[in-house]
Design goal:
By secondary structure, the protein is α/β, with parallel strands linked by helices. β4, α6 and β5 form a beta-alpha-beta unit.
Length: 199
């Protein structure tokens, strides 16, 4: 069966059963620095996601894996295997992305580079924040996703440091983001389910 058949229809009974299973989505916190606000944003997204019924969501914090910098290790650190193992369990991702110097954080780029096959043929959404909503960081991430065979979805909630945070540290999102986040999650769930058949 061809790729498009698998993705959009003409499935066998066995493949339809796989499609109807709940997908597992990891909400990946893209910052590891002291004083970061990504846990607040991640928990907010998870709170919205947990009201949905078509997927199981979990927070995946890069900081928990103590990844070394790529090129400074022989690959034997346990965090590397644990990171790849966690990604392999998941069907899709929501990246919580903050903008640093018009791009993503070094910690997120490092974590992306420490895996390959575990990313392939999965879907991802992006929730970004920064002075311009983190849009430039998200666009950089989209290019990396393409190289890793991650299908990033169209809807992209952007949060402003000026209107969605108090003093740049306390997250107080405007209600207007709710519809956008739910639309993004719906797209991630749909594509994660479809790409499960491709894998």
């Amino acid at each position: 069966m061809g790729f498009l058949d698998k993705l959009f229809g003409n499935q066998t009974k066995e493949e339809k059963t796989v499609t109807n299973e709940k997908v597992k989505i990891g909400i990946i916190l893209g910052s590891t620095r002291q004083g970061r606000v990504s846990p607040q944003v991640g928990e907010w997204v998870k709170g919205i996601a947990d009201k949905r019924t078509d997927a199981n969501y979990e927070i995946v914090d890069i900081a928990d894996f103590n990844l070394p910098f790529l090129g400074t290790t022989d690959g034997s650190e346990p965090g590397i295997g644990a990171w790849n193992g966690k990604l392999a369990e998941l069907d899709g991702f929501v990246f919580i992305v903050q903008e640093y110097n018009h791009s993503i954080t070094a910690a997120l780029k490092n974590a992306l580079d420490f895996a390959r096959e575990a990313w392939n043929d999965k879907a991802a959404g992006i929730v970004s924040y920064g002075s311009t909503g983190g849009a430039r960081a998200a666009e950089h991430l989209r290019g990396i996703c393409g190289e890793l065979k991650i299908a990033d979805v169209r809807t992209h909630p952007t949060l402003s440091l000026f209107t969605d945070f108090v003093n740049g540290s306390e997250f107080k999102p405007q209600d207007l983001h709710l519809n956008n986040v739910n639309a993004m999650l719906g797209e991630v769930e749909q594509w994660s389910r479809a790409l499960k058949n491709v894998r």
